[in-house]
Structure formats: structure tokens, C-alpha cells
Amino acid sequence: MAEEPIAVALRRAADLTAAGNSDAAIHVVRGVLDEHPTHSEAWCHLGAAYLDAGDAESSLDAAKQAIRHGERSWGYRLASVALMELGRRDEAVVSAREAVRRDSQDWRCHVALAEALGTDDPQESFAAACRGIQLANNEARPFEVLGDAALRVHDKETARRAYYEAIKIDPANQHARTNLVRLGRPQLGTTTTPAQAEPLVQVHLGRIEELGLWLALRRASIGLAIGSLVLMLVGMDETYSVLGWFGLVLLLFVVFVVGSAWVKFARGVPVKKTLLDHRMLAVAAGLLGLSSVLLIVWTVLVALGAQTLNPLTIVLVTSVASVVVAALAIWRRSHPK
């Protein structure tokens, strides 16, 4: 069986598992493994199918085979879920931590850790769920898990907003819908997205919205810091003719990142009230604003024929300071006391 047919077979197995036809999926993957017994991804698909069939023991055995044959993190995530099903929560946490260690940029690893920690360590579970959202805020699953974690730390408002975001991304998410009803939201229809039928009245920033703004501020500040450094390095060769245009592009990038984040997370929230209630956010926004104003000044000076890099030095320093403040704030909000 060639490599491309293997990929096709595994895709078919995944579709069968998602459709609830786990027996057929197991049959398909077994056919692959008969010819390629060391194919680690196939072992993971087999483990997922066994898990869907309710056979956690066989799923764990398949996950161990995947790990043995070099699977990077999926095998550990799968083993964590299987161990939880078997009631071996401590081992599940160890396996999930190893998945995070091996692939810290995969949101699914952090979600697995959040679920494994569960009620045993609700604060760390909440932190892991927050990290999952930082890596994949366009996926419903991290929001669903964050909602569960928020309930365990008795933060009903964050749980409500997390479930609401999960349903906006995946209107068929029954787990989020059920928990929203339990939290006091009216029953949501299955054919209408809650973004239209059940808008949340936004009068202040919740944890999710604040985290979204912080991520945008960090992204914009990093872009501004790197861009100003590039401008300084290029400017040393006195090639000022095109630098002004690059500065303009940099400014548009900052406006786009911050503006789109505000529209997504804080539309309808008074700016003055937000900055007064969130002092660190005001500091970071002020530093980013100062950097942007100085970049505008420098761009205008270059357009008028000036040849100076002095304002860029301050732009670099203030944008780096904004990055530091944003990184500290994100860490604090991902690790509630």
C-alpha cells in the first residue's frame, strides 16, 4: 500500500469514526497496519476508533504502540483520554503533560491537560484551557473545555461566555448548549446560531474578551518592535527613500490588529471605562500608542526629506515595554490565584 493510499485510508477511517461507525473504522485501520505495522499515525487512528467504540483498554494499547513507533504528541493525548476513561487520572495527567512538553504549540495538548487535571487541580486546569484558546481561538473545543474549567473555579460569567463562543463557532455543540441552559440561559434552537438569537449584552470585559485584547496588543507590539528594528538596521545604509512606505505599512498593521480585536472582543464597551477598570491594559495600550505616534512622526519626517533614526529608538523601546506588559498580563490571567 503506497503512502498516498495510506493517507486516503486513514482519512476514511477518521470520517467513519466521526460518523460513529467505529467498527468500520477499526477494520480500515487494521488493514493499513497489517501492511505497515510501524505506522504511528495509523496506530493513533486505531486508538481513536477504539475509544469511540468504548474500548478504552484497546485504545490505550494502540496509543502505546503509536508512542513506541515515534508519534510526537498525539499518542500521549490519546493515552491520556484512555487513562481517564479507565479511572487512572494521575497517569492521564502525566501523559497529557508529556504531550504538552513535546508539542507546546498544539492546542489539543493543552486541552487534554485541562481535561486530565479536572477537579483535582481546577486552577491549573483553567490555565491550560486558557493556553488552548491562545493557540486556537477559532476552534470550538478549547472554548468548551474553558467553560468546564471555569465552572470548576466557580467563574460562571467566564463559563457562560466560553460556551457562547463555542456555539458561535459550532452551532451544533450540544455540550455547550446544555451547560448554557444550566447556567440560566434560555433554551437555544438548534437551527439558529446564538449570535443572532441570544446576544450577550456587553457592558464590561470578561476574562475571554480581555485575554483576546491582550493577545492582540502583544501581537501588534511584537510586530512594531520587529518592524522598528528592521527600519533601524536598513536605515544604517541610508536607504531612506523606501523606509517611509515601510513605516506606513507597519502602522496599518498595528491599526488592523488592534482594531479588529476591539471589534471582535470589546465592541459596545466604553473605551474610557475599559481603560479605567483595567489599568495594565491602559499602560500597554498607552505604550503601543506612543510607539505608533512616534512612528508617524518619523514617517512624516522621512517624507519631508529628513534622515534620522532617533525616533525609531524610542519606538523600539516603548514597543518592547508594551510586549513585556502584555506577556505579564497574559500569564497572570492564564494563572488565576
TrEMBL record:
SUPFAM superfamilies referenced in this protein's UniProt entry, alphabetically: TPR-like (SSF48452)
Gene3D superfamilies per UniProt: Tetratricopeptide repeat domain
InterPro entries xref list: TPR-like_helical_dom_sf, TPR_rpt
Keywords: Membrane, TPR repeat, Transmembrane, Transmembrane helix
TPR repeat residues: 40-73, 140-173
Domain of life: Bacteria
Transmembrane segments: 216-236, 242-263, 283-306, 312-331
Pfam families: TPR_16
Protein name: Tetratricopeptide repeat-containing protein
UniProt organism field: Kibdelosporangium aridum
Lineage: Bacteria, Bacillati, Actinomycetota, Actinomycetes, Pseudonocardiales
